[in-house]
Amino acid sequence: MARLRIIRHAPALHGGALAGRRDVAADLGDGVRLAALRAVLGDGARVVTSPALRCLQTAEALFPGVARRQDARLWEQDFGAWEGMGFDALPDLGPMSRAELAAHCPPGGESFDRLCARVWPALHEIAASGDAVIVAHAGVIRAGLALVLDSPAQGLAFEVAPLSLTELQQIGALWSVACVNWQAR
Q: By the number of CB atoms within 10 A of the CB, which of 25, 48, 164, 177 ranks highest?
């Protein structure tokens, strides 16, 4: 059995613009929530992070001085030409099913389906070595949920707040969801 506790990074200092692959810092000003989450996670965790600055900073705030392994497959979705675009300027895609949305690829970027194809092997490999804490992005967490549900489209049904905890468990070849979007108060 392996337990993967996946933390979404602290709020991104994105300036009101989309930051999938854009490397922006994290707002670590909510020391109360960070301390509460740190208390829940405990000590001695094996920590794996996305290489994004906001994830590295969050991991350091949660696990000061603990060695961390970076895995580039845990980067957020690449939004291509939409990177850095103000949220209010993003194109309206019109009505789409979750399956259509998962398959949609921003110009020069990657679809959520492709994100899942990149993230799923990483999660399997991390779980093969036992329990771990992963500090990553909302898209990566949704991909993990999609892995459990065996459907990228269904992974898009979840909200994932900054500094939230989602826990997945693997027993043999089976995956389950222990909690989603838990937030320390």
A: 48
